[in-house]
Amino acid sequence: MFRERAKRVLLSSAKENIENIKKAVDEGNHYGAQQMYKSFSVRYIAAKRYLDALNILQSGACVQLENGQLTCGAELVVLFVEALVKGKFPYDDDIVDRIMKIYKKFPRVLVPQHLDTADDDDMQQLQEAFGAATTRVESCSSFLKTAIKWFIEFGAYRNGSPELQSYHFVRGKNPKKFASTLVNFMGKCYPGEDDLAIARAVLMYLSLGNLRDANILIDEMKKQVQSEEIEFPPTELMQLTNYLLLTLQRDALPLFNMLRQRYSF
What global pTM score does this model have? Predict the structure, then answer.
């Protein structure tokens, strides 16, 4: 017992260690910093200082991802979720905010435009960009899947967090499954706010330029609520969402401006 308490006292604060490790990153020693992030998190967990472990892993993941160290960042985000499980952290908005902050740090990969397919250098550049994009998607997906499993075990909803589910599904290729998930959440997660969840899902697809899946999502949801005898939210927000999809299909700027005037809140 005394030895266990001594370990807790000897460990310095996460804030102090975060600052020291950041110096290694600034010097370009990403590998050394990675080992320190992992080592300190293990020691904090052994000392049952789970919040310190979360803090150092979140900081490490964000710092590594900001510096383009995708593999290092991806490793730390998995350890972050494992620390949530070991510490038996229940779902709350603070934890979800932490997860979203990490997710948003994953670097975006820009695919080169206007390349000559007959040029070997251009094709090599394109191949490398696609490879980097694939790695990013796989890393994000792995992180979100792990986070959803944590939520199922320690959260309030049997099927996982709606926020995390949304980020996971819009990056996937199955809008019909996403529709089933949203229908299952209706009336259970945010009573009276089903329209917000649906509109958010549509806008997330549209933000990625994916009009096709946004339409599939809405059409599939309408079919499923009918068969389940659930009422589709008859709100102005749903009207706006439907009109927006119709307007985008027609690429009609005048109609879009009319919508802005009609539904200005």
Answer: 0.57
